[in-house]
Design goal:
With 232 residues, this protein is an alpha/beta fold. It folds into two domains: 108 residues, 3-Layer(aba) Sandwich (D-Maltodextrin-Binding Protein, domain 2); 94 residues, D-Maltodextrin-Binding Protein, domain 2 (3-Layer(aba) Sandwich), CATH 3.40.190. The chain is 41% helix and 22% strand. The protein is built from ten helices and eleven strands. α2 links the parallel β1 and β2. The longest helix is centred in the first third of the chain and has 15 residues. The N and C termini lie far apart (55 Å). One of its GO terms (molecular function) is molybdate ion binding. This is Molybdate ABC transporter substrate-binding protein. InterPro entries: ModA/WtpA.
């Protein structure tokens, strides 16, 4: 009888300390590392992180190596993830100026010399940005100032280096670089669909549910916001 109790006790301890294996899509390593550090302070379960590209994550899912997978909605769709998922944040769209350039109102675009916009062929936010600009009554006055880019990171670099005056960025890129940038204005959501960040439940468990609840906590959301992942 004592042996049975001992075995159950050992099994119970192992179960309580079960690792949680989480796959994470590109661009979310910094906030997740901070959040998981905080999670470990109050939980005994260890979160194992597996960062990688689409091919790597697809292999991990097919081999059932993951308990959960964090990524944008479009990434999960491309991976054909059909399991239950929960939204943990959003990427918004903002118009940002370089340091020294005032951008208090969209009308201030008439005072800048250059505006970087992501090519619509490279992402929905590029098309959304262009549609927003075209809706402005003074669009004919700024049309010649618009420069298309194939890489959203180029817009950030050029803003920081002072080579352009304004650019459309997603909120994650803005918040991670805001100390080096100027003013920003939020683009009305009537012009775009915010990118949703989800955690998909690949192998659901009590431990995974505990982690998901922590991702939704005020502490985790504060960290997400610091990295431009909003929740509204």
């Amino acid at each position: 009888m004592k042996k049975i109790i001992l075995i159950l006790a050992i099994f119970g301890i192992n179960l309580a300390l079960a690792d949680i294996v989480i796959g994470v899509g590109g661009g979310y390593k910094k906030p997740l590392e901070e959040i998981i550090t905080e999670f470990h302070k109050s939980h005994k379960n260890k979160v194992i992180r597996r960062y990688g590209n689409m091919k790597f994550l697809k292999e991990q899912v097919s081999k059932k190596e993951l308990d959960g997978l964090i990524g944008l909605e479009q990434m999960l769709q491309r991976l054909e993830i059909s399991t239950n998922k929960e939204m943990i944040g959003l990427n918004g769209l903002v118009l940002v100026s370089r340091k020294g350039i005032a951008l208090k109102d969209f009308k201030d675009l008439q005072k800048v010399n250059s505006i970087i916009v992501l090519d619509s062929k490279k992402g929905a936010f590029g098309e959304n940005s262009q549609n927003f600009l075209e809706s402005l009554e003074f669009y004919p006055n700024i049309q010649s100032k618009i420069l298309l880019t194939q890489d959203s990171h180029l817009g950030i670099d050029m803003l920081i280096e002072g080579k352009i005056d304004a650019a459309f960025l997603n909120t994650r890129h803005y918040y991670e670089n805001k100390q080096k940038l100027g003013d920003f204005l939020e683009i009305p959501t009537s012009f775009y669909k915010p990118q949703k960040l989800f955690i998909a439940k690949i192998n659901d468990s009590r431990e995974l549910e505990d982690f998901i609840q922590f991702l939704k906590s005020n502490k985790a959301q504060e960290i997400f916001l610091k990295h431009g992942i909003i929740n509204k």
